[in-house]
């Protein structure tokens, strides 16, 4: 019967109604205000993303889409969570849908550019980052850096026939068979 007073004290502590002289434990959960308004699912999702809880953030974003409706903001958030979870195909599809809703939505443009870079679509990523940069007016450092990286990568991917011809030689081995040898 010793557990009854402890349970009563805990119940009172959690409800915020402690008898005089009793104190709530330091690690007790804060009291819940059942009458308070619920926190927006997007806000919860953004906080979870910042904490690295991408799976939980995705759930919060899906809840926000169910409550607020599907729009560029909720779709962009869902796409971002999928990007962080490594679901590049899903992220690309959802971010493109967000841009159908609002082609000027900068977060969706930036995240789509990141997905495209990850998928090796450097040229398209560069164009998407350029759009994000233009709509953002160059104000966001992350977008400026993403555009810089995409331009550098695109320049590395340009084919230069003069260097290719100097690095390899074609050697005939037998009837109709050739061997490509490196000359460096």
Polypeptide structure, described:
With 184 residues, this protein is mainly α. Helix content is 63%, strand content 7%. The chain is built from nine helices and two strands. It has helices at 3-15, 41-50, 54-68, 72-84, 88-101, 106-118, 122-136, 141-156, 161-167, and strands at 168-174, 177-182. Strands 1-2 form a two-stranded antiparallel ribbon. Strand 1 (168-174) and strand 2 form a beta hairpin. Helix 4 (72-84) packs parallel to helix 6 (106-118). The longest helix is centred in the C-terminal third of the chain and has 16 residues, at 141-156. The radius of gyration is 28 Å and the shape is elongated.
SSE-based structural type: mainly alpha
Query: Quick check: average pLDDT?
Result: 80
Can you give the helix content as a percent range? 55-70%
Instruction: Give the overall shape, derived from the CA principal axes.
Output: elongated
**Which blocks of ≥5 consecutive residues have pLDDT under 50?**
1-19
N-to-C span: 86 Å
The largest sheet has its strands arranged as 1-2
Report the major sheet.
2 strands, antiparallel
Q: What is the count of helical runs?
A: 9
Beta fraction: 5-15%
> What is the tally of beta strands?
2
């Amino acid at each position: 019967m010793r557990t009854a007073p402890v349970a009563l004290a805990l119940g009172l502590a959690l409800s915020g109604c402690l008898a005089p002289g009793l104190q709530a434990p330091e690690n007790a959960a804060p009291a819940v205000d059942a009458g308070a308004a619920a926190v927006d699912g997007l806000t919860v999702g953004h906080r979870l993303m910042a904490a690295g809880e991408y799976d939980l953030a995705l759930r919060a974003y899906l809840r926000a889409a169910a409550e607020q409706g599907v729009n560029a903001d909720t779709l962009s958030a869902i796409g971002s969570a999928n990007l962080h979870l490594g679901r590049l195909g899903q992220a690309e599809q959802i971010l493109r849908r967000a841009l159908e809703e609002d082609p000027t939505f900068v977060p969706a443009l930036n995240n789509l550019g990141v997905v495209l870079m990850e998928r090796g679509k450097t040229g398209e990523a560069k164009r998407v980052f350029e759009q994000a940069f233009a709509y953002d007016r160059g104000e966001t450092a992350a977008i400026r850096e993403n555009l810089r990286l995409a331009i550098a990568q695109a320049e590395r991917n340009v084919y230069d026939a003069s260097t290719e011809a100097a690095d390899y030689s074609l050697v005939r081995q037998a009837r109709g068979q050739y061997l490509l040898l490196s000359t460096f």
